[in-house]
């Protein structure tokens, strides 16, 4: 069997997606997601101009050899663009493998470890009162776990708060929007939100929160300690994690579970965090961390150190990644939770899938492969539209973390 074509499809059904379609000489094809929010065309070019020519004529069944070829053979290893491009090829090859074996991916990986995949939704509001109502709405929809993000008094906007309560897309402008941030205002406000949520809903619902990389280690230690009475499922992205040792200080101050990793793209970004048990959940996901073949290695290392998976699942990860992630989640022994931000209807039309939501869990279907496809003619109706994630400044104008 040989690879005949590696097609890169860029479309924008509500937001930009980059999709790879690997076509073989026996008619079987596989689909992979290569979407990198705000830098989509860099990955599209990496795939079209640098990877595709090397794959024509290769045997698509050699998933591991092709992964090693694209990783070690690149010389300039790792990085978000490189690893997203490798991920897309990897997932498309696993999709082909499943179709050839006539098996859903979770069977190929080792079979079902759980009936359904527990997910968390995103409740958000302009203030505590609205956020509390939104958490209630998610509970009424059957969610067992809800992330709560709310506006901060005195700040015009903040991460995770949107007008549309079922859909959140932060890449929203032709040039980066500038947000304003105050850690002091934030740290004074967040504990009140969770105190109100626990008073209203008790402790049966899992509550999560995302700091989105905006604290220093000691501020993260303080917030983690302030939130301990509310027993969060996790506190996410407390500090930018380029320096993994930063988490040692946080760990000394709080037992609030910590999650990190959605911006990581290889095991080397998290090996210290995992082996020193500085975190409780690793969020590195299939589209940005080298695909199923590499994320499987991260999950295996994490299992040894009692770290569980908690894949990133925002709207800028396409249904292809959600499909592949759900098969992985259905199999992986040290599963934690799966983020589930719903896509637009237009996106779901472009990417038909067989997974479904029921009573707080997502369930994969038994379609061979990952169960997600792309409608190329429909995708062509949604051309790329440049969009950037915002940038963040402190109130004195200092450029900060978004
Ligand atoms: O879903 C999350 O936890 C996020 O932090 C979402 C990110 O801001 C988003 O994926 C960036 O493109
Ligand atoms: Mg996040």
Automatic annotation (TrEMBL):
According to its UniProt entry, the protein's GO biological process terms are: amino acid catabolic process; carbohydrate catabolic process
User: Looking at the keywords, is Lyase present?
Assistant: yes
Please name the GO terms that the record assigns under molecular function.
magnesium ion binding; mannonate dehydratase activity
Is Ribonucleoprotein one of the keywords? no
The protein's annotated pathway:
Carbohydrate metabolism; pentose and glucuronate interconversion
The reactions it catalyses are: D-mannonate = 2-dehydro-3-deoxy-D-gluconate + H2O
Under InterPro entries, the record lists: D-mannonate_dehydratase-like, DgoD-like, Enolase-like_C_sf, Enolase-like_N, Enolase_C-like, MAND, Mandel_Rmase/mucon_lact_enz_CS, Mandelate_racemase_C
At the top level, the lineage of the source is: Bacteria
Show the NCBIfam families listed in the entry.
ManoateDhtManD, PRK15072.1
Q: What is this protein called?
A: mannonate dehydratase
């Amino acid at each position: 069997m040989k690879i005949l074509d590696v097609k890169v499809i860029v479309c924008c059904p509500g937001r930009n997606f980059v999709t790879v379609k690997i076509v073989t000489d026996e008619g079987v094809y596989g689909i992979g997601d290569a979407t990198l929010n705000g830098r989509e065309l860099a990955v599209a070019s990496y795939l079209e101009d640098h990877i595709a020519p090397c794959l024509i004529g290769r045997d698509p069944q050699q998933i591991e050899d092709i992964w090693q070829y694209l990783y070690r053979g690149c010389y300039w290893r790792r990085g978000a663009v490189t690893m997203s491009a490798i991920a897309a090829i990897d997932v498309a090859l696993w999709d082909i493998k499943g179709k050839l074996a006539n098996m859903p991916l979770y069977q190929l990986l080792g079979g079902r470890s759980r009936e359904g995949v527990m997910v968390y939704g995103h409740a958000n509001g302009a203030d505590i009162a609205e956020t509390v109502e939104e958490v209630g709405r998610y509970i009424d929809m059957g969610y067992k776990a809800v992330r709560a993000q709310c506006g901060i008094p005195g700040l015009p906007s903040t991460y995770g708060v949107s007008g549309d309560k079922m859909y959140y897309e932060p890449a929203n402008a032709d040039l980066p929007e500038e947000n304003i941030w105050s850690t002091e205002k934030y740290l004074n406000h967040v504990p009140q939100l969770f105190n109100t949520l626990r008073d209203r809903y008790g402790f049966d619902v899992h509550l999560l929160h995302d700091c989105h990389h905006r604290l220093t280690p000691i501020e993260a230690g303080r917030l983690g300690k302030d939130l301990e009475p509310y027993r969060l499922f996790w506190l996410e992205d407390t500090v930018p994690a380029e320096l993994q040792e930063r988490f040692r200080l946080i760990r000394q101050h709080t037992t609030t579970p910590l999650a990190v990793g959605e911006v990581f793209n290889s095991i080397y970004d998290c090996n210290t965090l995992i082996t020193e048990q500085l975190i409780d959940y690793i969020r590195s996901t299939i589209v940005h961390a080298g695909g199923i073949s590499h994320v499987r290695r991260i999950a295996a290392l994490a299992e040894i150190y009692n770290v569980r998976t908690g894949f990133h699942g925002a709207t800028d990860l396409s249904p292809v990644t959600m499909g592949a992630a759900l098969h992985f989640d259905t199999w992986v022994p040290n599963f934690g939770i799966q983020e589930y931000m719903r896509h637009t209807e237009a996106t779901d039309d472009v990417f038909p899938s067989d997974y479904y939501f029921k009573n707080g869990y997502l369930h994969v279907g038994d379609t061979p492969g990952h169960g997600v496809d792309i409608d190329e003619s429909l995708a062509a109706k949604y051309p790329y539209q440049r969009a950037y994630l915002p940038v963040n400044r402190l109130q004195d104008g200092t450029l900060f973390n978004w």
